[in-house]
Every structure is written in C-alpha cells, then in structure tokens.
C-alpha cells in the first residue's frame, strides 16, 4: 500500500439551513445531503509536495444547486490547508470546480488515471506557485482503483 491510502477527511452535510430564508434545505430529520472525502495523493517525482484530492464529492440529486457542494468543497479545502497541503486536486465536474476557482490540471502539467473525460481533472494551489514548474502524474491511493472510483 502506498502512503496516503487512508482517507484523511470525510465530511458530511446534513440539515443545512438556508442563511437567507432560515428554511431547512433537507426534507427529513438529520438526513444526509452530501459527502466529500479527502485523501493524500502523490505527485510522481516530488514526494515532498503535499497534495490532496477531493473525491468522491456528491450531493443528493434532490438537494443539488442549493450551495451544499460548494460548502463541502470550501470546508474540505480549509481542512487540507490545516493539514499542510500546498494544493488540492479533483476529478469530475470540471465546470463546477472551475466555477469555484480551480484550474484545469493540465495548466500545471498534471495528469492522472481518473482523467477519463478530457479536462475533468482540476487543481487549486493553496500556496502561491506551489505547482509551478512541476508537472507529472498524480497518483491516487490504490483504494480508488480497487473501488472503481
Ligand atoms: C457536482 C455537485 C457535487 C455540485 O453540488 P451542488 O450542491 O449541486 O453545487 P452547488 O449548489 O454548491 O453549486 C455551487 C456553484 O457551482 C455551480 N454549479 C453547480 N453544479 C455545476 C455544474 N455541473 N457545472 C457548472 N456549475 C455548477 C452552481 O450554480 C453554484 O454557482 P453559484 O455559487 O454562482 O451560485 C453535484 O452536482 C453532484 O453531486 N453531482 C454528482 C456527483 C459528481 O459528479 N460529483 C463530482 C465528481 S466527484
């Protein structure tokens, strides 16, 4: 097992209240609305660079477009920063992530095996120029492949 096989952070969203209306966005009591997991990933050739991946991230379909995904990403990124990460990466809805300030990972010369859809792999620097001049393969924990994530 490579270093970083264990999830570092697992955050859930439940019973979120809309700050403007005070209305509970969930239908039921204590219902799970969304989840994000964060794991350490490795940048091939740069073992000292601390990168973390936000994945998987999901919000229940009936609760999407209410700001829950954004809140999960912001919380996860804050925790990554506290854990010493210099950059975070994610694979999935590139439009969603770029809307939140991420850049296509190719911009930094990064790629990964989860980049099935061109442009779906994205990155965000937590420290200025942390990815500048690097590039290479971002290796996710083996668990991701084993689970087909
Ligand atoms: C992608 C996903 C997590 C977004 O969660 P969400 O709660 O619906 O997103 P939010 O409501 O927090 O959206 C935050 C902002 O992103 C925008 N946005 C949401 N989904 C978007 C998309 N697919 N494309 C572009 N922008 C998007 C919203 O309009 C919102 O913009 P605003 O802040 O200007 O109002 C959710 O659609 C989902 O769970 N999808 C299925 C699983 C998945 O694909 N996960 C990602 C890969 S792991």
UniProtKB/TrEMBL annotation:
<dbReference type="InterPro" id="IPR016181">
    <property type="entry name" value="Acyl_CoA_acyltransferase"/>
</dbReference>
<keyword id="KW-0808">Transferase</keyword>
<protein>
    <submittedName>
        <fullName>GNAT family N-acetyltransferase</fullName>
        <ecNumber>2.3.1.-</ecNumber>
    </submittedName>
</protein>
<dbReference type="InterPro" id="IPR000182">
    <property type="entry name" value="GNAT_dom"/>
</dbReference>
<feature type="domain" description="N-acetyltransferase">
    <location>
        <begin position="1"/>
        <end position="128"/>
    </location>
</feature>
<dbReference type="Pfam" id="PF13508">
    <property type="entry name" value="Acetyltransf_7"/>
</dbReference>
<keyword id="KW-0012">Acyltransferase</keyword>
<dbReference type="GO" id="GO:0016746">
    <property type="term" value="F:acyltransferase activity"/>
</dbReference>
């Amino acid at each position: 097992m490579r270093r970083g096989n264990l999830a570092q952070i697992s955050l859930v969203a439940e019973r979120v209240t809309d700050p403007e209306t005070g209305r509970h966005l969930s239908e039921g009591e204590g219902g799970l609305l969304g989840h994000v997991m964060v794991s350490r990933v490795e940048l091939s050739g740069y073992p000292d660079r601390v990168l973390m991946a936000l994945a998987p991230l999901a919000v229940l379909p009936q609760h999407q477009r209410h700001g829950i995904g954004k809140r999960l990403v912001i919380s996860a990124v804050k925790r990554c920063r506290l854990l010493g990460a210099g950059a975070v990466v994610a694979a999935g809805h590139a439009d969603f992530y770029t809307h939140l300030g991420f850049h296509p990972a190719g911009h930094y010369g990064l790629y990964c095996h989860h980049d099935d859809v061109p442009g779906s792999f994205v990155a965000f620097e937590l420290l200025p120029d942390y990815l500048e001049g690097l590039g290479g393969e971002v290796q996710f924990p083996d668990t991701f492949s084993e689970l087909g994530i």
